[in-house]
Amino acid sequence: MRRPGGDRGQVSIEFLGMTPLIILTLVLVWQAVLVGYTFTLAGNAADEAVRAGTAAPRGDARQAACSAAGLKHLSTAWKGDAMVRCSGSGYVTADVYLKVPVLFPGVISFPATVTGHAGAVEEVKH
């Protein structure tokens, strides 16, 4: 003999109870993806910046070429707070500083900064 009502609807109730946990997990995974992507962007931008910096003449021209190359491939969501610094003579280094967006790139960023660093030997022109 069956009880009236029984276990009907139990799965729906359990799913409703788990929904906030599922959503929180998805949000945390997405944020981890954004952090990883920001590290990738910072490293690539530093590589591009140092490549341009080694080919440019020393001084302000080097910093301008380095900065332009470092920002060239960044989307507007990361470009807004980005900073590129080049230094050195003989061995040129580039540092790129990017902010990690919170959930939606271009809206709000964490106060923490991700750094990309690269270095290369300066090209000698004959």
Automatic annotation (TrEMBL):
Residues 9-51 form the TadE-like domain. The chain crosses the membrane at residues 21-42. Keywords: Membrane, Transmembrane, Transmembrane helix. It comes from the Bacteria. This is Septum formation initiator.
